[in-house]
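Q: I have two molecules that I believe assemble together. Could you output structure tokens for the complex as a whole instead of separate predictions?
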Amino acid sequence: MNWYSIDTWIVIVGVLTAVSCAIPGNFLVLRKMSMMGDAIGHAVLPGLAIAFLLTHSRASFALFIGAALVGVLTAIFTQWISRFGHVDRGASMGIVFTTLFALGLLLIVQAADHVDLDPGCVLYGAIELTPLEVSWRPALFGFELEVPQAALVLSGVLLLNILFVVFFFKELRISSFDPELATTLGINAHLMHYLLMALVAITAIAAFEAVGSIIVIAMLIVPAATAHLLTDKLGPMVLISALLAALSAVLGHTGALIVPGWFGFESTSTAGMMAVMAGLIFALVFLFAPRYGMVAGSFRRVKKASKAEKSKE
Amino acid sequence: MDISEILNVFLLCDYNTRLVVVCTLLLGCACGLMGGFLLLRKRSLMGDTLSHATLPGIGISFMIGVMLGGDGKSLPLLLVGATVTGVLGCVTVLFIRYHTRIKDDAAMGIVLSVFFGAGVVILGFIQTMPEGSAAGLESFIYGKTASMVMSDFRLLILVAGVVLVFSMLLFKEFQLLCFDETYASSQGWPVRVLDVLLLALVTAVTVAGLQSVGLILIIAFLITPAAAARFWTERFDRMLLLSGMIGGMSGWLGASASALAPRLPAGALIVLVAAACFLFSMLFGSKRGVLIRLFRQYQLKRSVGRQHLLRALYEILEADHAEGEKLVIRPVPFRQVRGRRTWSDNSLRRYLRQAYRSGLIETLTGEDAIILTNAGLEAAAQVTRNHRLWELYLIEYADVATSRVDRDADAVEHVLGEKMVAELEAKLLALRTVDGTLVPPSPHPIQPGD
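A: Yes, here they are, computed for all two components at once.
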């Protein structure tokens, strides 16, 4: 395996993406709205396309605004359809995001003449190419660093997410576990909900450009669900999920370089491998978590059964 | 583009268009049917998970195909691979849910993203393979509706046939599974087997549809027609039928539209047609549509308002008539009625207008004096009697059957039976000194300001 400075940047971008997604992901998992990440991940496509059509550029502030708007709209439409139409939440989510995705595809076809926008790139991303787009060259200890644009954007998003969670930790906690209590305490649970959705959408759009929607969806849900099996406290859960996300990113890129060699291939998608690594970590925790793991669970059952037998005697 | 071209497309004159349109129509019917089961089982997003989980299977079977010495694009092999990992994904979701505290939604999200990631990894392998290009595999993700061929048609007709036969043969079983799983298992039915069978059918439809509308848009086909059909009927069999029809229609219209505008992706058009059907159904659906529900709410509000007005008038008259005498109609001041309940001036005036139009009160001119007509008094007596009987029923038998209470019923006897009503009346009469009226006293009189 050959490790170049470009690989370091890929890992850095991966870690930044993974951690920015994992932090808001905790609240999605706790609110039983994990699929919202998937929905928003697909639904921002028209937001992207419209922003492209309006600004004719791939990197602009309008992009973030468009994404946040479409993200919140997805949440609002889902809410409306399930409330006014009495449709099951999952189904209304599915209707909204597939419709928006279809709209996005149509718009992209229209936009294809003007801008280079490939739906494939949106889905799998091209994290391997991110270091090529350098936007900042600070000199540090005599070395010239070539900071990719994606790293800058994602650092900003990560900072935003951390600040949001730190500032609204209490509100988020109460409205995630008990929205009614939150309302009686004077916290606007709906506002928190839509803020969270906007944040997820902004994170998704920032990550899209760099790494594609699979990582976004995987990192929103998998590390948070893994952390949920390891702890009962929200604070530690957020920290653990961030650590696991960073770990999956590092392992993901390393794996993408090493694993193909085992089968005689050259390389593979880092984005996909990050999702797979997150899945593997989940599988390990799923089996061996001290309290909520499967092994511990069956061990407890056996112990309980033998205890019951003993007390019978 | 002229009329004859449009007619050509919609009447399926051209061979290629005919094939594509018939294929999407079949797929729409099959998806709509399966989607109905998924919707009622609250598993709509399972289609989402399932379709993403097919990707690694497609990649692996492509690689196997290449290793066996072909170009890897043998359709049956790819479909088998897709089915295997699709079912594996569903089973993993159920497994995670049964064995940990992780909920349905997170389990589906985990499987969806990790399986899709694995698929992308495998496609990444394939791209570096010298033997074959993965170019054809892209069509599984975005669909390639416009280039469907005869073999696709045969596959779709097979799948649609299988789905139709199974859902007709096992209709009763699936219906019970959807509505009351616990009851089904307590009756000794093989619930797990049925569940897996249902998921296998859904997988078959999904895999067959991957090629034509693509991995992401097939999800819409599984959810949207069923959700649209739900607004029109309360009966399961009719809903399934309608859902299949809406799915078929979306396929037909969407595919025809894309034949007219070849630049636009057919999958997206089909989804948008289905979404339009959904929106229309949601607004105008005859059973659960938004408008009909608003209308029913309005009617209920009216009828409740009428009942409250009549009861208030009756009780005011009742309060100051001498015992043992017949109730006499006299003008009641507006203020006094207004004080009986927490209603606004405006709503009370509206109820009064309604009552006037149905001939229950005399005039509207002297607003301060409300006078019941004879018919009005009769109706008021009836309403008050019924309400009081219901109140007593709730006081006496609340633990038995509150769900039977229907304060709107014209006569209590229709719901509770003569014997029960006689018993309740006797109890109410015993609560007070004897007088001549038919209306028993209130078990808990409403005080002004309550």
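A: One point stands out. Chain B touches chain A through 62 residues (CB under 8 Å).
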